[in-house]
Amino acid sequence: MNSDANTTYLVRHAQTAYSAHHVVNGALHVDIPLDDAGRAACRQYADTDWLADIASCRTSGFGRTLQTAQLLLPGGRVPMSPDHRLNEVDYGSFEGGPWLTYGAWLVEAGWDAVPPGGTESWRGCVLRMLDGLLGCLALPGPRLVVGHGLLGSVARWLAGPHPPVGDTTALPVFPEAPYLEPLVLDEEALRRLVAEGRRQFDRPADRSNAGRAVAR
């Protein structure tokens, strides 16, 4: 892998008991740690060559992202800092329930809707995550960014060939982000990805077209 100072490695945190069963957790006060399989995967992956060159690390405010980073980069040799813009979406009343239940609501309500008991929409969350990803460029590189499944899925979709979203609240079917597998971005590619994300999502959606596709 390319590991020069312009490189950012974006990974999804390792497995938790919630993520293994597609249960949602976007509340900081219900922070869910890595499970045994997640911790073991991190320790095994820590021997990967490109991790030896990492100069800095950015995580979300959730313990599972910091725990992942600390296991991937043991010994405290790499400075780590949280950025709450990378936090998981606030699921509101869907917290602790199946992702499919939230997903079904999202399909009907559209990306601008705030879930009951929540504080932000899906679209607002994606845009702040993209801002957080762009902000990591202020760190020395090569840099590791440990985020959540939503950012990983959207970033992979934006980095590859994809159709325009169009004037709709319906969302594409995003690929599920794999645990720990890096999306490797040089500075130009990262800036281009964030700009494309803003182009696709930084606008009001047409409520008349809600519910036409399933978000993952």
Structural key phrases:
7 helices; five-stranded mixed sheet; Rossmann fold; disordered C terminus; alpha/beta
Descriptive report:
The chain has helices at about 15-20, 35-45, 65-70, 100-110, 120-135, 150-160, 185-200; strands at about 10, 55-60, 80, 145, 185. The protein is of the alpha/beta class. It has one domain (about 10-210): Phosphoglycerate mutase-like (Rossmann fold), CATH 3.40.50.1240. The chain has a 5-stranded mixed β-sheet. It is globular and about 45 Å long. The two termini are about 30 Å apart. Residues about 205-215 have low confidence and may be disordered.
**Main beta sheet strand tally, sense and closure:** 5 strands, mixed
pLDDT averaged residue by residue: 91
Q: State the CATH class.
A: Alpha Beta
Number of strands: 5
Distance between the termini: 28 Å
CATH architectural group: 3-Layer(aba) Sandwich
User: SSE order, as H and E?
Assistant: EHHEHEHHEHEH
Q: Helicity range of the residues?
A: 25-40%
Whole-angstrom Rg? 17 Å
How does the helix and strand content classify structurally?
A: alpha/beta
Low-confidence stretches: 207-216
Gross geometry: globular
Q: How many domains make up the 3D coordinates?
A: 1
Strand residue percentage: 5-15%
Side-by-side strand order of the widest sheet: 3-2-4-1-5
Structure, briefly:
The chain has 216 residues and is of the alpha/beta class. The chain is 35% helix and 9% strand. It is globular and about 45 Å long.
Note the topology.
Blueprint: E1 8-12, H1 17-20, H2 36-45, E2 56-59, H3 63-72, E3 80-82, H4 99-109, H5 122-135, E4 143-147, H6 149-159, E5 183-185, H7 187-201
Parallel strand pairs: 1-4, 2-3, 2-4
Antiparallel strand pairs: 1-5
Helix pairs in contact: 2-3, 5-7, 6-7
